[in-house]
Design a protein that fits this description.
- This protein is of the alpha/beta class.
- It has two domains: about 140 residues, Rossmann fold, CATH 3.40.50; about 130 residues, Rossmann fold, CATH 3.40.50.1980.
- About 40% of the residues lie in helices and about 10% in strands.
- The strands form two sheets. It has a four-stranded parallel beta sheet, sandwiched between helices.
Length: about 290
């Protein structure tokens, strides 16, 4: 389960029923005279970033989870175990993917440039990955502009956000109660608002790599002020299903109507829509009267 969860987060995927990613870019810098014209993305986050940079017209195929933006050329390429023959059938000159040593070696032996991008550990990693894709596609200025725009928008959101210090929260990855600690990228997003993460004590030794599985009893005892559900699509969870869980109807977040239903994709990816995730948290805090 933990290996599957780690892979989901590395790919930047929404978490499905059973489980519903720190990385830096790794690629040769593209020469402006020899830019990649046939790009394949096996990373939903990278797909969103490529289109935001203006490289969308050069993306010939994406994995089956890359459904945003709407005009992505979605294929049946497996995100879990992509097939090299299926990938090469699109004659790519650049493939963006998460870590997969055998696949990377195979593609590079066939002359394909590979950019490896796993789940980030920090905002710095996020922006570094955007810069890497900008360099790989010859869109360096566009990458710089995109990063600046994201930073400006996030700063504006934070400047208007209410003071949430003293409030606690639980971020739900799936309905088997996997969560994130402040040592993860998702946890760092919440830290922007000075929120207290109730999952932190559950992985104080780091043995769960920032993704501990909690229990009903643990959460009833922690009694978070806010609950953020990042499993509304993959696990069909919502405020009503949460209230029906044993003992959860007494939780402060449930009693006060502070169960926030997130878009799984937005909450699990770290591309341009990161701004949207930050804005949703700020809005939830305002609604909660913080």
């Amino acid at each position: 389960m933990k290996r599957r969860l780690a892979l989901l987060l590395a790919l930047g995927l929404a978490l499905p029923m059973t489980a519903c990613g720190s990385g830096s870019g790794s690629a040769a810098t593209a020469d402006e005279a020899d830019l990649p014209m046939r790009i394949i993305s096996i990373s939903p986050t990278a797909t969103e970033t490529l289109f935001a940079l203006g490289a969308g017209e050069r993306v010939v195929a994406v994995d089956s989870f890359s459904t945003y933006p709407d005009n992505t050329p979605v294929t049946d390429i497996e995100a879990w175990s992509p097939n090299i023959e299926a990938i090469m059938g699109y004659e790519p000159d650049l493939v963006v993917m998460s870590s997969n040593g055998d696949l990377q070696a195979g593609l590079e032996s066939l002359g394909v440039t590979v950019v490896v991008q796993d789940g980030p550990a920090s905002f710095s990693d996020v922006y570094g990955q955007i810069e890497t894709l900008g360099a790989a596609t010859g869109l360096i200025a566009e990458a710089t502009d995109l990063i600046s725009e994201m930073q400006t928008e996030i700063d504006e959101i934070l400047a208007d956000a209410p003071d949430a210090s003293g409030l606690s929260f639980f971020h739900e990855l799936d309905n088997s109660l996997y969560s994130v600690t402040s040592a993860t990228f998702i946890g760092e997003v919440y830290s922007l608002f000075a929120l207290t993460n109730v999952a932190d004590p559950a992985d104080a030794d780091g043995l769960s790599f920032g993704y501990p599985q909690l229990s009903d009893e643990y959460l009833v005892d922690a009694d978070p002020d806010l609950i953020f559900l990042a499993d509304t699509l993959g696990c069909a969870q919502n405020a009503a299903t949460v209230a029906e869980r044993p003992g959860w109807n007494t939780l402060s977040a449930v009693v006060n109507g502070n169960v926030i239903e997130l878009n799984d994709d937005v909450a699990s990816r770290w591309g341009p829509r990161l701004v949207e995730f930050v804005a949703v948290i700020a809005g939830a805090l305002r609604d909660a009267g913080a």
